[in-house]
Amino acid sequence: MSEGDSNDPDPESDRINLRIARSFLDVVDETWRERGFNSRSEFIRFALRDAVNHPEGAGVWKDIELSEAQFDEGEGISSDEIRARYGSDDE
Distance from CA of residue 28 to its chain's centroid? Predict the structure, then answer.
């Protein structure tokens, strides 16, 4: 959206575009629903805040980046493997 767009409900926020593999987006969508977020955007904002506020967790983000590349190549890690690796108790 352009600066000063009168249709923007919140002039203090900006819209961004993000390009990721559809197969990875399917995993993201499954994750936000399982974790009780109201929307994909809410989940992504939470994940970005968490990454900024806890940079020591960058290893997780590197693994996500690697996973996205693997999905692009037709490979990947299941959500069950991710939960096992990082000890998620959101099941």
Answer: 6
